[in-house]
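Reopening: structure tokens for the zinc ion complex, inputs below.
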Amino acid sequence: MRARSLLALWAGKVAAIATRVGGSQGTSFPGLVALRIDPRFIQHASNRKHVTILLSGTNGKTTTARFITAMLEASGKKVLANPAGANLSTGIAAALIRNLSWGGSNDYTHALFEVDEHALPTVAQALKPSVLLLTNLFRDQLDRFGEIDTIASRWKEAIKKLPVDSVLIVNANDPRLIAVSTGFTGRKVFFGATEPGLLGTPNLNAADSTRCPSCGGVLSGDRFMAHLGVLRCGICSFRTPTPDVALLHYRPEETGSKIGLMFEKKNLTLQTPLEGRFNALNLVAAVAVARTLEVSEKSILAGVASVRQAFGRAEHFQAQGREVILHLAKNPTGYNEVLIAITERVSQPELLLALNDYWADGQDASWIWDIDFERMAASIQQLTVSGVRAGDLAIRLATAGVAKEINVEANLESAFDLALKKSSDQPLHIVASYTAMLFLRKLLVRRGLVTKEWNA
Ligand SMILES: [Zn+2]
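Re-run output (same inputs, fresh job):
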């Protein structure tokens, strides 16, 4: 490592010790310090002796990264990963600082980083990954991310600059990503569903792109999740490709789900404690990465079995003798998938919905109008809305046609107690925006209902 990068590493390590002593949990701060000293720290601190994997996309980054890490570890590899959410350059730099010795050496075989959509071009340029996984591009909170077409065109430019021996792994059901991948001349691996009809209820309300990325023509075919589907253009020759790693079917079980997939002409059935078909897609993406890295089927199976729910993602716990499930939902497509996963399990759901409008949640709460509450409104048995935007949620749910009384309690802690008190013996499902989820989870830790998870 060159002198300047080594100095940045030391400063980062000192900053890490200082923040620990100070009691702060700022996971990215040491990275910020190192990048101030050496703006090219990531590039110089990471070497190409180990395999670097980057993954980006709107939804599913954290869970997919967990699956990939588990599969690699089951095959005996040592994986360096960034904690969920620390997915900007500073978070990646901080992860490197934590895992490098003071002399700059390391003993990991694989580095796996989830990367924010906007940060991807810079990070990919610095790290020159062996594998780049693109999961999906959905419309996110509008004020934070702007037009996804801008992200797509920046990704397209970034992908052209990848080393030729990189492997690009892309969601075969996302027409926009297929268009993004066309500029890359190296090896491409596609993952996705082959028969959307076998995946259950379509989620089409939040469809944000229905046009052909080549000619703007209308795409026809089966969609199953927003704009994702098996699609072809009515005007030009564009069509979504046949996946190399294919999701054949998905079945919700008592706990978790069963997933059938096919790769290299072999069928494989996987059992995961995770719920929801969005997790089935995350799993297929992870298998595509694992097979590209020649992880054996046995290690894939062992890895999948070991993955539990990520922090606040359909996390189950008991409160006052009741089963409670905490879901995170950050955008219309993700929210709709959570609602579908809930109604797969209960016909008359009891819900606590919490919405904040801080920067990490999206300050413009109008995205809740793109959530398909109409689908379940009439069947909702008990409903409490909470958070800074509790009032907006109440109006949205009333408009959707909720027949029962809507309990409005802006204070999250009071709302949690109220929802528990009002509910029957059914499970209580909490669906929370990002900062509301963090707050509720802290509350649950304080009450001893869930354990603290540091690396999340
Ligand atoms: Zn076309």
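Residues 3-22 form the longest helix (20 residues). The two ends are 29 Å apart (CA to CA). Marking as resolved unless the reporter disagrees.
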